[in-house]
């Protein structure tokens, strides 16, 4: 058997894996409609951990206070900020009865670790149902808390939400960031629907305080600077205790990075936690990434040498059609339809960027959460 023939068979296998993945995503999440549940207004503690976020707090705390929700407190955690974050928090604390302030000093143990700061915030909260977001996150509606909390039940102690990024005109980086966000959400929502939840995003998620302490909180990975969201969820989530919420009213909107260097630094921190996922999740996610990378590498090479090109073009076309359906339906749910036509170009740039990040993380690990 010639080398081109072997590569062609390998490409068929790669495309088969990709199509299987995308068909799974399509039927388990892309085609699902968001559920609107009865609003329960159970007591909620909303926890926001902030480091040097004074301007974002001034902007977003009033919007959170304006939520159409009858019983909630806001726990503001100042993680050793060196701007006027603490002063801003104190002003809100003095003005509103449902705001509680936690100040993490620089001389406390585990300084610089967001998980330690979050743990103090969780301990200070007075309610069993916890919602988490970041200081730079804006609720997409006044129903945000009501939508997220409606998914709690006697069985469901984890709720995974969607954290979008704001659109910026004429920015290639912005489109790449939003594309990666939609692809990540497509995966973690699909896996959760398939009974294999493996992560959530700290910009928009919720769980019960009892679940946190019954599983010893972040103790098993406290030394890892990132992963307060995905590592904890990967550790405790299962098919029976996890629900997903993706109504448009339940989104949060964050300000994206505007410099490529800053985004790479952020992604390096996020990707560094994946090696600590459960083995089955590492295998499935690695298989998806490697098959995507090989799709581009093998497909480009075989087309370049002109071997069996009608078959190769047909396989590439079939894969793109199924991917477009899966991504397209998902992008529509998340109000990111401008990305659909650019999907192949954005995927190529994302896959090559992720490869460079993997290589960089092998050389040195990110050391700080911010």
TrEMBL record:
<keyword id="KW-0808">Transferase</keyword>
<feature type="transmembrane region" description="Helical">
    <location>
        <begin position="308"/>
        <end position="327"/>
    </location>
</feature>
<feature type="transmembrane region" description="Helical">
    <location>
        <begin position="6"/>
        <end position="31"/>
    </location>
</feature>
<dbReference type="InterPro" id="IPR001173">
    <property type="entry name" value="Glyco_trans_2-like"/>
</dbReference>
<keyword id="KW-0328">Glycosyltransferase</keyword>
<keyword id="KW-1133">Transmembrane helix</keyword>
<dbReference type="GO" id="GO:0016757">
    <property type="term" value="F:glycosyltransferase activity"/>
</dbReference>
<dbReference type="InterPro" id="IPR029044">
    <property type="entry name" value="Nucleotide-diphossugar_trans"/>
</dbReference>
<feature type="transmembrane region" description="Helical">
    <location>
        <begin position="283"/>
        <end position="302"/>
    </location>
</feature>
<dbReference type="Pfam" id="PF00535">
    <property type="entry name" value="Glycos_transf_2"/>
</dbReference>
<feature type="transmembrane region" description="Helical">
    <location>
        <begin position="339"/>
        <end position="363"/>
    </location>
</feature>
<protein>
    <submittedName>
        <fullName>Glycosyltransferase, catalytic subunit of cellulose synthase and poly-beta-1,6-N-acetylglucosamine synthase</fullName>
    </submittedName>
</protein>
<keyword id="KW-0472">Membrane</keyword>
<feature type="domain" description="Glycosyltransferase 2-like">
    <location>
        <begin position="45"/>
        <end position="211"/>
    </location>
</feature>
<comment type="similarity">
    <text>Belongs to the glycosyltransferase 2 family.</text>
</comment>
<keyword id="KW-0812">Transmembrane</keyword>
């Amino acid at each position: 058997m010639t080398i081109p023939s072997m590569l062609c068979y390998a490409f068929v296998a790669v495309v088969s894996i990709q199509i299987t993945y995308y068909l799974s995503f399509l039927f388990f999440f892309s085609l699902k409609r968001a559920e609107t549940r009865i609003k329960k207004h159970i007591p909620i503690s909303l926890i926001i951990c902030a480091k040097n976020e004074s301007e974002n707090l001034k902007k977003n705390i009033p919007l959170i206070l304006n939520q159409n929700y009858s019983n909630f407190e806001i726990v503001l955690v100042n993680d050793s900020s060196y701007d006027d974050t603490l002063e801003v928090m104190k002003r809100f604390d003095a003005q509103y009865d449902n705001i509680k302030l936690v100040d993490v000093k620089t001389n406390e143990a585990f300084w610089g670790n967001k998980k330690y700061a979050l743990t103090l915030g969780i301990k200070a909260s007075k309610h069993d149902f916890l919602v988490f977001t970041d200081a730079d996150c804006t609720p997409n509606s006044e129903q945000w808390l009501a939508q997220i909390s409606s998914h709690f039940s006697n069985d469901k102690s984890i709720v995974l939400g969607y954290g979008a990024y704001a659109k910026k005109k004429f920015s290639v980086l912005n489109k790449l960031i939003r594309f990666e966000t939609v692809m990540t959400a497509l995966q973690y929502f699909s896996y959760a629907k398939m009974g294999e939840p493996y992560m959530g995003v700290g910009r928009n998620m919720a769980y019960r305080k009892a679940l946190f302490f019954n599983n010893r909180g972040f103790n098993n990975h406290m030394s890892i600077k990132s992963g307060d969201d995905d590592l904890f969820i990967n550790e405790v989530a299962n098919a029976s205790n996890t629900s997903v919420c993706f109504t448009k009213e339940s989104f949060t909107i964050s300000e994206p990075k505007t410099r490529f260097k800053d985004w790479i630094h952020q992604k390096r921190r996020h990707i560094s936690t994946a090696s600590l996922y459960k083995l089955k999740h590492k295998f499935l996610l690695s298989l998806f990434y490697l098959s995507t990378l090989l799709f581009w590498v093998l497909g480009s090479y075989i087309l370049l040498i002109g071997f069996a090109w009608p078959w190769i073009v047909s396989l590439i076309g079939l894969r793109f059609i199924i991917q477009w359906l899966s991504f397209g339906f998902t992008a529509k749910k998340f109000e990111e339809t401008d990305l659909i036509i650019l999907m192949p170009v954005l995927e190529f740039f994302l896959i090559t960027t992720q490869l460079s990040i993997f290589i960089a993380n092998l050389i040195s690990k990110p050391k700080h959460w911010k």
